[in-house]
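Page 42, continued from yesterday. The earlier attempt failed because a stray header line got pasted into the input along with the sequence. Redoing it now with the clean sequence only.
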Amino acid sequence: MAKYIGPVCRLCRREGEKLFLKGERCFTAKCAFEKRSFAPGVHGKSGGRSKGGTGRESDFGKQLRAKQRARRVYGTLERQFRGYYDSARKTSGLTGLNLLQLLESRLDNVVYRMGFASSRSQARQLVSHGHFSVNGRRTNVPSMLIKPGDLIEVRHGSRSGSYFKELADLAQKRVYPAWINRDLTSLSANVIRLPERAEIDGNLNEQLIVEYYSRR
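This time it went through. Structure tokens are written below.
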């Protein structure tokens, strides 16, 4: 499966804001964005997209950046992201909200939202290594879409690992959303419902994403 393997801090710098792709490290002074917040590349410090730049951005540029920001936050490649958009467009309701709800329903995102990983990339790795089961069945597919009523839990065979022995204490410090019902005793969680818009990252602009794909 294709994936981005470059430095993730470069993605934050390109968007001109922290995307918190490295989890807890992003809250420390070690975060590369703190030292180099300007856009990457030879024109990073002087270009219009750099921090404090004076260049004007076109409507298409704003739409593109909104799409790229969402892609990078959820860790998807373009073809997969476009597939989510096409599915959202065919579903009744607001296309933009449908898109964000699909992205939030990915198994790796749900594991992250449960507080069982410090970042989506770590959650993706844990799922890929087969540490989780959904409704009693082992899965190693991070993009698996979770539905309301599904039960996600750490597999019994994985609980003897050092990470999962300490997971309850780690997760206790992390906030989880109201659309998830978490049980740290059993290292499991139920998805109660789809998230509402107010429960999804406010820095994502789904309307601009819809406009981006609508003009193509």
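Notes: DSSP finds ten helices and five strands in the chain.
Reminder to self: strip header lines before submitting.
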